[in-house]
Amino acid sequence: MKIKESHARRRWVGGAMTLLLLSASATSASTATNGSPPNSIGPSEFIYSANQAAENVSGYRIDLKSGKLVSLPGSPFASGRYPVAIAMSPDNRFVYAANQGSATISAYSIDPDDGNLRPISGSPFKVGVYPDAITISPDEHFAYVTNEDGNSITSYKVDPESGALTSTGNTAPTGAHPISVTISPNGKFAFVSNFNGDSVNAYRIDQHSGDLIAVGRAAADLHPIYMSVSKDNRFLYVANYGTATVSAFQIDATSGKLSEISGSPFVAGSQPYSVTVDPTDRFVYVANWGSHNVSAFKRNAATGALTEIKGSPYATGWFPYAVVVDPKDNFVYVADNGAGTISAYQLDHNSGALHKLPGSPFKAELGPYALTVGALGSP
Length: 379
Description:
By secondary structure, this protein is an all-beta fold. It has one domain: 7 Propeller (Methylamine Dehydrogenase, Chain H). It has one helix at residues 5-8, and strands at 17-25, 43-51, 56-62, 69-71, 77-78, 83-88, 94-99, 104-110, 117-119, 125-126, 131-136, 142-147, 152-158, 165-173, 178-183, 189-194, 199-205, 212-219, 224-229, 235-240, 245-251, 258-260, 266-267, 272-277, 283-288, 293-299, 306-308, 314-315, 320-325, 331-336, 341-347, 354-356, 362-363, 369-373. A hairpin with a 6-residue loop joins strand 21 and strand 22.
């Protein structure tokens, strides 16, 4: 696999992975590898981590009381070479890992009884060179994959029964070296970060064909990387890896065009890599790769502005690549890429402050990466 300067940050100096938080109904009383039975009554939550260096996907059940991670009995699950991103279908039936080294997407169905992953027939699916991110549309009809070297984003149809991917033949141009793609919760707009273009592309999504129609490009700080849209569809937050900041943009409800808000960009830690908005839309968390910590912010619902929370930033393991909040808004998890661990925190519902959980960090596979959250079976 070739390695050039623009890819060097993605390789093992921080060979990150993607964590996926899933809340799923558990109907089995199977025993996990540490001897603890899964919670078989009501919803259960699971984390899936795409492990770039280990070249697999691992899964964990979250203890709903303590936040502890318990390895699934079938974990880890085989993937392609260098999985660098992971996504889940909104109905929480399927998981997709983007394998940058083999230019494929590994696709899995989720066993509703124990959370284990089963390869989908036809997987892995061939995609463009250097796939960097994958996301599924809220209506579950389409998947979108960014291609670093192609300066493009391609779309795929998702089979509603099997979860299999089929190319639509549609490709949209991006800026230089696209990294992540995210979709507004209402499914109307898509956004792509251009790492070497210092900008974010905005697109309107054709609801019938899934085509992306470009509506504009907004300037960000140096090397924008991962992004998150607020649950109210009004604001986009972008981690700027090159300038220790987070850019915040207002999303035009009609066109999808981006306008940077007053006060943006907001100061985070060194080399911020991942950003996420919590399920209540009140807090924003940023994983700072270079300073080995997580910045926490309170979000102004009216303006989208960020104010750092007292006590922030919070220490993590080496080279954190991803941060995610569990669907019930109780716990925050961070993929410590360099340490091969997952740091876990209790989220204070009043202040948004983080408190490290007993037993944290939890041992993971080699090189955990980026995060996505889903909820199934929650009341």
